[in-house]
């Protein structure tokens, strides 16, 4: 008797990859992000873009499917992350796409500004690979939790030190 069932084959519905747009001008940071996603066991399809203008143009391109989530570096050339965020959240067709801001800075004014502009999370870039893995695990946990709970401002700022304690 011949069957099509292969117990070792992954079911296509087992883990649908998360479609991610990453707007990040630093190639090393792009690679670190992608490697950390893999290490965090987040099945994903990442499209990396160089700046905020490319991000906005890609999102407005109707031939491309909308991503599940976007990650935006705050400081980029051509069009910075905050300006891109403002345009995205001001567009009725794009505003519901979750947006996570990435920055090496943790300046309260930047954090407040991106929150006011509609970002869903603000993540301080970790200094280590393991820190990045932890942060991404938390971001994806918070993202799906937020979909159920609505915006929670005290969960808005994520950085390595506020998640590595007790999350081992």
Automatic annotation (TrEMBL):
Keywords: Phosphoprotein. It comes from the Bacteria. Pfam families: Response_reg. Residues 19-140 form the Response regulatory domain. InterPro entries: CheY-like_superfamily, Sig_transdc_resp-reg_receiver, TCS_response_regulator. The keyword Magnesium does not apply. One of its GO terms (biological process) is phosphorelay signal transduction system. The modification 4-aspartylphosphate is found at residue 73. PROSITE patterns: RESPONSE_REGULATORY. This is Response regulator. It comes from Flavobacterium crocinum.
